[in-house]
Structure formats: C-alpha cells, structure tokens
Amino acid sequence: xxxxxxxxxxxxxxxxxxxxxxxxxxxxxxxxxxxxxxxxxxxxxxxxxxxxxxxxxxxxxxxxxxxxxxxxxxxxxxxxxxxxxxxxxxxxxxxxxxxxxxxxxxxxxxxxxxxxxxxxxxxxxxxxxxxxxxxxxxxxxxxxxxxxxxxxxxxxxxxxxxxxxxxxxxxxxxxxxxxxxxxxxxxxxxxxxxxxxxxxxxxxxxxxxxxxxxxxxxxxxxxxxxxxxxxxxxxxxxxxxxxxxxxxxxxxxxxxxxxxxxxxxxxxxxxxxxxxxxxxxxxxxxxxxxxxxxxxxxxxxxxxxxxxxxxxxxxxxxxxxxxxxxxxxxxxxxxxxxxxxxxxxxxxxxxxxxxxxxxxxxxxxxxxxxxxxxxxxxxxxxxxxxxxxxxxxxxxxxxxxxxxxxxxxxxxxxxxxxxxxxxxxxxxxxxxxxxxxxxxxxxxxxxx
Length: 448
Ligand code: HAM
Known about the structure:
Number of helices: 16
Helix content: 25-40%
Bound molecules: histidyl-adenosine monophosphate
Largest sheet: 8 strands, mixed
CATH class of the largest domain: Alpha Beta
Shape: elongated
Structural class: alpha+beta
Number of strands: 16
Strand order of the largest sheet: 1-5-6-11-10-9-7-8
Number of domains: 3
C-alpha cells in the first residue's frame, strides 16, 4: 500500500506541547490572579464572529482587515458563492471570520448583553485565547497566536488609563520580566474633536513628500493618512519622523487627559517614553495608546503587548456611546523576549520530585506508589519509573525530567522505616523518616 502523505500543522501555527502548554496555562492563571485583584472578571467570546464585527470595529483600511482576515464559511455557503460567482448573496450572518484580536468581539458581546448599565460602575473583563491573522510568518509573528487581554468599558477617567497600564507592567513583573528590560511607549491619538484637523495636516504632509514615500503611503494620504506612521519601509519611516506630531495638536480635553495619565504613571513610579509617532495598527483608538517593547528584543517583533483607549468603538458598533480602554499581551512574543533576556519566568513549573525504586520487589514498588501519591496529594509534583529501570537509569531519567530531588526507597530503608533524599544537583544524600516524607520534602524544596 502506498504510504500516505504525513499531515503537517498549518503554516504559522504551533502545537503547544509540554513546557510550552504549561507556560500558556501558567500565564493565564497569573493573569487571573493579578487581574482579579484589580477587579477584572474572566470572559470568553467566540473565536469567530460575523466579519462585520471586525471590518467595522478595526477599520476597513487597516492591514488586519484588508489583508489578514481568516474568513470562515460553511461548505454550503461556499458552494453557493462559487456558483453565483460572488459572495454578495450571502447574509451578514453567513460571512464569518476568525478573530484577529479580542476587543471587537468583547465590545460586540457587551452591547448584545447590555453589560454596561447607564450610570453604573465600569465593567472590567479579561480574556485569554487564540487570535488569527494571515500575516507573513516570521519568528514572533504567527498566524495563530495567543493573547491575554483586558478591557474596561464605561468611563473615560484617565485614572483608568493609568491603572490599566500599571496593571500591565505589574503583570510583566509578576511573570519575571525585569522592568529595566522593558520600554513602555506612550502617545495620545486625540479624539473626534481634534483628530480630523490633525489627519488633514498629515494628509498635506504626505502629499508634499509624495516623491519620498512608497506607493502605499501615497495612497494612504486619501484613505487613512495616520497609517503612514506604521509603514515598515525605512524611507517612509524617515519621512514620518518629521511629520506633524499629534501631541502638538490635541484639543484641551485630550491634552489634559494625556497630562493626567503621565502624571499618574510618574506617581506610581512607572517609567515611560513619549512616542509621538505611535499610532497602533487598529483604527478604533482614541486618546491614550501604548505599547510595551522588550529591549534587545525580538527584531521587528519586539512589541510584547499594547493597547489604548477606544471611546468611539461601542457607538460605532451600534451601542450607546460608552468609552473604553484595554490592552493585549502576546504570549509567544513574551516568551521570546524572556528567552532573549535570559529572564527566568516565574511560572516555569513547580519543582519536580522523582521517587526512585532501589530494587524491584513488591514492597518497594508499593512504597514508590504510596510516596508519589502522598507527595502529589500534599501539592507537590512527583514522578516515578513505570518501566522497571535500574536505579542508575532512574537517576538519569530524573535528571532528564529536570527533577531537583529524588526520594529513593529500597528494601533495607523500608525495613528501617526510612527513605533517602538525594539532591540532584549536589548528589548529597540524607536519610528521612518514611512517614514524614511530604513535610521533609517540602522543607528540602524550600531550602534549595
Ligand atoms: P495588537 O497590538 O494588535 O493589539 O496585539 C497585541 C499583542 O499581540 C502584540 O503586542 C503582540 O505581542 C501580539 N501579536 C499581535 N500579532 C501577532 C502575531 N501575528 N504573532 C504573534 N503575536 C502577535 C490588539 O490586538 C488589541 N486588541 C489590544 C487592545 C485591547 N487594545 C485595546 N484593548
């Protein structure tokens, strides 16, 4: 029989296995714990939404919407669209897309379930999950990646902007990323009052410099001039360095709000850099925007998280005017940054204890089983051999698994009601009372 072609994972996706899945779960639980203290509740929204949610929410002229959406369609509807030669006959609810980010879906849910009662306290929610963007795949740039995000709906108080940013920086600190290795970039995007005039200024600037810009940026002058700040073309980036700065053209309210955010970050001792060319890749932003980069980072993919205020989004998506602000952290990029910085993330797993059998008789095997059970039930991570290996190869296996301690039991030890604790780094051995192993191991682990 001919051998079948082996299936491979789609380009730009990853199987989360072993330590990587453990890191994802641990990052989620670190988020749940920290964000919970700041009053955020967990939410999950569908991985797919009607296409409209994204095209309206993120902006028709953004790269994400124009080039990177993963569309989803049932076979029946696809067949029909192909037969008709167009998808024009499909209803909005039949045009679906995988979510490229979490904010638009959350806002859709908040409107649908009326989560923000008028005059009520702001709603704070966080989420974690896969996002999908059809990007050119690179190190740190995937087509399915994972984000942990947080959103607040219902107040435009700049205190919330500052608190959200502080919470984000505390999150990186809780993960074990040193604050001095991170760069928080901050800008204000203005609002419906002051942005239109600024947009016109940038449009004029682009047209004046059309000869030095790429074709796409020239076209952007008419579609979405501010996107030119995001162009990766070095020539365009140079031109945009000297473009008019939004922070010189903010209305009084926006300027005041921006000053207050900066003041509160100073009060909290959170360092930041003002980045007047930071516009972010999605159109919903107003006022405060921010991005966190890891120094010495992941090349062009150095942004490990970012976010901002979106005071017009709820209304744009059909809800009552409701201000909002949020951020999202990229899981894969945060891991890459930690690796590049040599930072040990705090959640790199509970220390492992290996229970080794010196001998194969039934009493020893039973003792190994009992000890593993007792250690696990006492909240520790324990592993043992299931293949009848020799003691020497059990030690090798323990090393391979990354065990920091071994508990060794053999017939003579059992007779004395003891086991031997072996420090896997120093190979130092001490005797311990069998009945008190969980407590002794816990103490030994704490002293490592
Ligand atoms: P974003 O900046 O597009 O913002 O994405 C947030 C983070 O997700 C990025 O900083 C990056 O770490 C990660 N990320 C984005 N694209 C990729 C990719 N292709 N591969 C790997 N990682 C990636 C948002 O998504 C907004 N929804 C954030 C937000 C929430 N704004 C307000 N509320």
